[in-house]
UniProtKB/TrEMBL annotation:
Keywords: Signal, Transport. It comes from Streptomyces millisiae. PROSITE patterns: PROKAR_LIPOPROTEIN (PS51257), TAT (PS51318). This is Sugar ABC transporter substrate-binding protein. The keyword Nucleotide-binding does not apply. PANTHER family: ABC TRANSPORTER PERIPLASMIC-BINDING PROTEIN YCJN-RELATED (PTHR43649:SF34), ARABINOSE-BINDING PROTEIN-RELATED (PTHR43649). The keyword Transmembrane does not apply. Transmembrane segments: none annotated. Belongs to the bacterial solute-binding protein 1 family. Residues 1-30 form the signal peptide. It comes from the Bacteria.
Amino acid sequence: MSTSSRHLSRRALGRLAVAAAGGLTLGACAGRPDAASPDAPLRITANNHVWAEAIREHFGEIEERIGRRVVMSILTADQLGNSYNVKLNASATDIDVMMLRPLQDLLLFAHNEWVADLTDLVTGDPDFDWADFQAAPRQRCTVDDRVVSVPVVTERPALYYRRDLVADLGGPPATLDELMAMSLELADRGNDFYGYVGRGQRNGAVSQWSSFLYSFGGDFTRDGGSTIATREAIAAYEYYGTLLRRTGPPGVTNMTLEQAMPVFAQGKAAFYADADAIYTNFLDPTISTVQDTIGFAPFPAGPAGALGYNIPSWSLSINAFSLLRDDAWEFVRWATSPEMVARIQAAGIPGARESAWADDATLAAFPPDLAESMRLGGERGVDHDRPEVLQVGRARDIVGQPLVAAVLGDDVPAAARDAHAEFADFLVRDNRHRGI
């Protein structure tokens, strides 16, 4: 790759320059040095995730390619968010490649011009083959027609169920009506056994409730306005609330992933719908008692079909203030190449490339019924699992209010109307901040 580049304005930070030799390179920011010390390492900041551990095992390959050490700092998701906010607000140069959550972080990061524009790089390299990435994750890594991130881990909803309990019921439910009926039939709440367990905490439940919302024909917004009080959204709220209220465990309105998952893992529920990326928790005998009886099924169909999400849960972006943006791109290009994605997916970590999902060797790491559920989810999936806004946490709090009302048996239409009014006002302010 050529090292020559031209200086760019801050708004165009990260846009690409055509080098004299005809190669593509990430341009330097005006007024900032455009080179780091030859001894400086390439610094990756990553989440404490199996993908980070897997890719780190291969660092020798990329270090040889770029002639530079690669070091990775691994943080929890909360630590990661706090670190990015502090460092990027200060235009820090001590992060080169960032592992981040596209649906939680990317819109804000792009709005603040914290991430480099990769558009020309990903689309201008035939060997990289940007079109090979699944459409929904690809879209989620694009902001205002600029590619600002590359997906590395994807997830869809899966229905986890007990094969031993549904054998006499005709197999796992294919529709939401069947899920409700089976959950009611199998629940034995007096003896601490539940038909269905799921997230019920106001903020944390929104991403998983999204699949119910889509399958009832709804969405969070339409044309920039709130749609959480539509007939379809109210039906989804009422369905999910009834499912948890009548067949779920006590205290479900306080349950996040960390509280709901162990209930199913310890054999105390017949059904659980959540991200397919967590499946290994149920196969680990040190934390699960259902590893011999668990089954995996696609998300059940509602009135509008089986419309779960298909999202990039994690992606790689380049810090716009990095002094090693060319080497950072070489890392991203290597880590998300067709060959590396196939290698990582073959180890059981779901990637975003169509070629990997079409390769039987990469699917062998997953249980066959889970692999089929993932494949179908990739074909059907909606490209978001939460409102597409700058202030995602606040939006989830608002949208989650009718969920809690539904679980508690309160007046759902009234709660939805109140939340709609608050969400509509929020969207006006959020869009104003975005300059829309």
